[in-house]
Each structure stands twice: as C-alpha cells, then as structure tokens.
Amino acid sequence: MAMRSQVYEWSIIAGNSARGRASGAAGTLTLAADTDLSIFIGGKGNNITKPAETTATQFIVIEDVACSPQLEGAVQVRINTTDYFQNPDVTDQAGVPGLASPYPRGAPLPGAAGVGNATDVSTSVLPSFTLYPSIYVLPGQTFDVLYRSGVGLAATDAVACFVKYTLYDGPDALIANKLLEMGITVNPNNVDWYKRSLLEGGMA
What is the pTM of this model? Predict the structure, then answer.
C-alpha cells in the first residue's frame, strides 16, 4: 500500500515481561527525573530494533502524540537532532505535557501531591492540546518520540505513550512533497484530490 495510517503504543509496566512490555529485572525500569527516553529504541518497555526513519521514497506525517498524565510526564518529537517543541527563545523543554495530551484519553487525574501514581478517581484528564499543524518527516530523515518524567520513574510505576502517523510511500510520497511545495496541508484527502486533478488533466 502506498498510503497507510499507523499507531505505536509504548508502555513501561514493572514486572510484566511476559507480555513483552518490559525486559530484565524491575530495577531496569527506573528513570531519572528530567531524562529523555526514546519510546522506540530506549531500552525500557516495548521497543523496536532500529531508529525510526524514512527512505528516499517515504514521507511521514505525525498527527498525534500523547502520554500518561502522571509523574509530570511529557512527550517530545525529535527530527534528526532537533526537538520540535521548544521555548520561544529556542531553549530546551520537555515537550507536550501529558496533562494537555493524555494517554489514554480520560486517564485519572494525578493526585493532589502530583507525585507517584496517586490518583483522584472522581476526575479524568481530557485533551486540551491538538497537534496542528501536523509534523512532517521528509524523505531521508530520522525521527524519534521521547518521553520525560519531571519526577522520575520508580520500579513500581507504570506509564505509556502514543503516536499516530500516516506513512506515504512511492508515488504518494512524491505527491506529498508536491503538496508541501504548494503550501497545501498533507493529508489523505488532499493527496487523493491531487491524484484526481492529475487524472482529470490527463483526460482533458
């Protein structure tokens, strides 16, 4: 297929190696405060075997990112070596807080202390952040999604991240690049519109 929507869920669950969610002893699941961890190849939780990248004939549009709202979690997108979410003075920041883009949607609100997994089950966290415009990963670029906890993770903590993106391959990647040059948003509807325009122009 030349155009397909994909999702990736990362989770770190203490002591749950049987389902492939984590490997090694529980102590390996800890994470220091304010430390970036790749959800793809970070070595904690479920991972893939190599960095995420595009070939010369691929174009990726990242449409949504989210993470657990507990433990001051935040999610960041990195293209090559540049973090996408930055402060106005171009200094480093954690990324999109899980309180603004929670995963799962409606996750329990962290407790009053704001530390650990204490929750107030009477309330839920609903998203207040929308990733618009989407993030484009151009042909030949590498990309990563990073999780950071403001207070760190203990071996007993459980967190998760989510990323949704559309992969355009082959001719659809060429069309995506053309739409980008034209200043038109790259999405499946606009790619199909451009295809129809080419067909109609050819028949005319």
Answer: 0.84
